[in-house]
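User: Quick sanity check before I run a bigger batch. Here is a single chain. Can you write out its predicted 3D structure?
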Amino acid sequence: MTNKDKILIGLIVILILLLIGSHLKNQYDRSKMFDQIQEANKHVLKLDKVKKEADGQYAKLVNNYKTEKDLKRELKKRNNKLYSRIKNQNEDIIMLNRTVISLKSERSTGDVTVDPIDSNSLDLNLRYPESDTAFIKWTGSISLIDNKYEGDWTFNKFPIEIVLTETQRGLWNSRLIGPDWLSVDSMTVNSLPKNKIADDKTKSFGFMLGGGISNSLNVNEPSAIRIGGGIYFKNSTLLINASTRNIVGLEYYHRFKKIKNK
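Assistant: Done. Predicted structure follows.
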């Protein structure tokens, strides 16, 4: 090996070490910044309350810093029967949403119809709310003789939507959307952290072994068979390989994260 080759290999090793060092430094800086954001988010969650965004639409930040043990304990305390079913079916608890709702009070007026057959009976048609799409309806009659009433309750459909979004700083926002006459008295949404829900089961550290064949662009030089091995850690890979042409190499690769499209 000539001095020129030694210098070249030395430069390659130094470059690889610089890349590794830069990567570790960036990882440390990102981790530190992430921890600071997480602490700030936890403080925001403590101060957050249910927000009314429009009639029938309410929002509440999700406390996604709960552990699976926390969610199980909470569900077992509130609904032990459901907890037992989930446990027996070997299901994982991802999120718990507890919302207390009520219907807005409303004063209504209308006409009373006297039964044409029985003048001692008054026919009534009540509904809530006073609209063509009333949720509750009561149709019946009141007897003036014995002061009793008799009628039938009917109920319309009660549409509810729950929309989960993520803010730019990583907070989750849960929205409950219903009819205009719906009122949310309280809302509590607890969840596992994002990285626990979308947990990547792939190991972050391991060993690699492989080989290949390379053809020289110079027709006078023979092909070479290469074998190599190394280690990987998260997005970094370090490999050592050797070929039948008496060449030993050291390689470093870094996988860049996918850029999210907004």
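The chain is about 25% helix and 40% strand.

User: Great, the batch can go ahead then.
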